[in-house]
Write a structure and sequence with these properties.
Length: 307
């Protein structure tokens, strides 16, 4: 069996940056693209906050440029995801579909996905009016009507952040009680731009070329209503894609991979993590790029020591 020097799981900003740096270091990385080549950024219709691009571009176009740069350095790509991982002495066996790949090191950059509402219309308008990142997309809704779904601190922070842009924000939550700290709820209640819908759930999302509104149901009374809106921010948490790795590396209670301070080193020798898979706070492409660079450098240092 041929042994890879470094395998990179994930092809988003973190994974492709790690691939570029690893390739330039002569490590000949193999990138496993996963089920969504380019990562979660590809669903963003417009990206305006990535440095170096004064004109906006789509997330898929940005990731296409990442990939072209990686290909320039002869990075190899393979479609598929790791389904099982095991350690053999100081190396790792990775089962990918029906094949097994052995590698000296692994960089995990599988990302985290915003939890979805799973209602009709969501797939149609995700990235086109529906977002899981208020920092990324909030500015697109200047003088618009938006809904924030959720009852935790993130939902409160999102709603308050949106008061800088939107003319009306509605916090929609399925319960009458909030997981958010009382202090955060009270801050949101003081805002004249924020309205409340509790306890309601969205049952349908409607529109034509753009998102136009929702249908919602009251949990207690069963009442049905419609509400016009231009955007929806879903703040019900993120799910890091770490399930297959949890037997090898240590994760926190929310499933995010734990790395050593100021590094991408995990609890398993030769395995590194970068990007949203270990970042429950920022979840930004620019941050993921920095993590990807760090992971490649940490892997290179590890491999040099092992030799």
């Amino acid at each position: 069996m041929d042994i890879e020097t470094v395998v990179i799981a994930g092809s988003g900003p973190a994974g492709l940056t790690a691939a570029i740096y690893a390739a330039r270091a002569g490590l000949k990385p193999l990138v496993l693209e996963g089920l969504t080549p380019g990562g979660q950024l590809t669903v963003s219709e417009t990206v305006e906050n990535y440095p170096g691009f004064p004109d906006s571009l789509s997330g898929s176009e940005l990731m296409s440029r990442f990939r072209k740069q990686a290909e320039r350095f002869d990075v190899r790509f393979q479609r598929g995801s790791i389904q099982e991982i095991s350690r053999i002495e100081n190396q790792y066996n990775l089962r990918i579909k029906n094949n097994t790949t052995r590698t000296k090191s692994l960089i995990i950059a599988t990302g985290a996905q915003a939890r979805r509402l799973n209602v009709p219309g969501e797939k149609v308008f995700y990235g086109r009016g529906i977002s899981g990142c208020v920092t990324c997309d909030g500015a697109f809704f200047k003088d618009k009507k938006v809904i924030v779904v959720g009852g935790g601190n993130t939902a409160m922070h999102n709603a308050l952040y949106l008061t800088r842009f939107a003319k009306k924000i509605t916090i929609l939550h399925r319960r009458t009680r909030f997981k958010a700290d009382i202090y955060e709820v009270e801050k949101a209640k003081k805002s004249t731009e924020i309205e409340w819908m509790v306890p309601w759930v969205i049952t349908d999302i409607t529109g034509d070329e753009t998102l136009k509104g929702i249908t919602a149901r009251n949990i207690e009374t069963g009442e049905i209503c419609t509400l016009e809106c231009d955007g929806i921010f879903v703040a019900i948490g993120h799910q890091p894609k770490t399930e297959v790795f949890s037997s090898i590396v240590k994760t926190n209670q929310d499933g995010y991979i734990i790395v050593a301070p100021n590094s991408t080193v995990t609890t398993a020798p030769g395995i590194f993590a970068c990007g949203d898979v270990c970042d429950p706070v920022y979840r930004q492409a620019a941050v993921a790029v920095g993590h990807g660079c760090m992971a490649a450098m940490d892997a290179q240092e590890y491999l040099t020591r092992e030799e």
